[in-house]
Here is the input.
Amino acid sequence: MCRIPHTRRRNGRYVFRRRIHFRNLISRPVAVALGTADPKVARYKASLLSACFVRVKASVEMDMEQGRRMTGTEIEALFRAELEAELKFYVHSAYEDAPWSDSVPEVAAWEAEAYRIARLPGRRRGLLPEDRDALMRRGLERDISMIEEYAQQIREVFDDAGVTRRLRVIGAPVHPETIEAARTHLIRAAAAATTQAQRVFDPDVMDAADPIQALMAHLGPVPDEVQALLKKPIPAALPPAVAGPADGMFLAFDRRRFSEVIDQILRSLRADGVWKGDLRQQRHIMETFAWITGDKPLGSYGHLDVETFKQGLQQLPKRFDYGSFTAGAMSRPFREVLAELPPLAPGDRRSAKTTNRDLSTMATVARHLAKTSWKSRLAGAVILDFGGARVAVKADPDIDTRPPWTSTHLSMLFHSPIYAGGDGALRRLRAGNSSPRVWHDAAYFAPLLWFYTHACREEICGLEVADVVTDHPVAHIYIRDNATRGKDGEKAGEKRLARRRRVPIHPELRRLGFIEYVDAIRAEGHQALFPELFVSAEKRGGGFFYDRAWRHMTAYIGQQMDIPVNAAGKSADIHSIRALGSSFYEVDGVNAILRADLFGHAREGTNARHYSKRESTEGLNVVLEERLAFIERYVPILTGHIEPWPVRLLPIEERSRVGSPLPRKRRSDAGTGTSRQR
Here is the structure.
């Protein structure tokens, strides 16, 4: 070490003497040490070193300041703020009494699993194999894909911009180290919130004046220093990526255009279980919203855009070729396209119900974005209220929107040759064959299942062999999401959680060979219970059944008696069988909870929705026995005359092709004088 002269030792350390200028400390030995024998040159080099020292010292001090870690007070403030924000969202969703409200605890449980894993080291990019193995050991293998979707959403919500904004709100230091640490604390807070949100319908929370504070009570009172940070105003100078106008309505300004987040919204709402199955309709509605409103940055949207969207929809004809963002109408400005359209005739206008459907879809999107890009500066405020813009639909008291079948109509169908014995494919509704035969497929069993289970069209047509549970004390059908009703390997089918239910198999179905039919389809190796309804990629399930069988069945009934038709000209359809089934329970003394569970309807009332848990207290066997007795008590037997036949299957391409009940008409060929069969 080179000691500089003109210093003296003080307390064991070398220090500069006072009033000695740095340049005067340069002596010949020092000049030699600096690589020159000339003191003047040495003094020049020393000046340069002095300037470098000042710059390095300032840089070090800046790094020390920027590298400060968060204090415990800042960590607690960050944790509490995120915990409360998440709980507000869940409590509001649970208590607004929407169709999805009763599923909040279940959704919170799925999200809690994702947060629990995401807060562990090494999970920033997703679940590890050991995480999936642990979930499978806990019996959650069916939920892994859902949890992975939530993990993806977590990465999007807690990106660097989002974490930076939260740090600046409480005045914490912002640099790579604190961003990473804060991300973990935020995920911990969200994990705690989703865990607590599962108690949202517990009595102590329901009885609390402030349910959110009740769910946060375990944290104890907020320390004064934490309270001071939580009350700090939002800094005016935020990074451009997240800072919005001073008078902006949202907590942060998201510069991404609406069209840029459509894919992310679809993924998130699918992961939340809000939307399932084929989401082409939801995508189209969001693209239409972006087109009509000018596809602005998310932070630029406001309440006026709701009315702009509604009016834009109402100015478009109900049959309109939208195209896409790259070709067709939507590739051009909306106003330009609108100016080229002819005036709307009354018959070309969209129905109010269709407009309300699109507004409801966007209301779901707005609720989702209210957690992030459309989060209001004012707690609880709704900026884009699509629900409030819905059009009033006046029901015509003279029109029965769904005319039901009567028992007589269904009895007529069950007396048809399909059940008594007809001919082969395309002639199964015609009697008179010397050796009548009965074939078993969707054409035979679907109407029976609709009548004795009250299920919907697609719920029956989309059943899988695995959904028919026969190794149980009460054989039953488990109506749920499955791969047959989904696409691209994804399970789908449930419109809402209440639709997931178990319906006992009526004794008449067993007598007529339904269990044997299931075994025969299983032996063929099919996944779908009615595989013939899924041989086409274009039209599947109930739509395929309608074309191949139901319209001919309706024609058969119409030959014998008048078919119910409402004042608007709509006739009874497949779903009208469900309406007939519901009417059987329109008598005094019917248990409303049993009826709702059987039909897959949401329960009504606080007791039915949140307290009555008979399956948990008494067991599934008891509940299924009660449901079976319930059905047998109120549903009449219309099939007692049908003789059970051994299961007989047509080649799959001929199944459910019943053909017309009428012989094909003959006509004369013009100009030839001959006739031929059409």
In short: The chain has a mean pLDDT of 83.
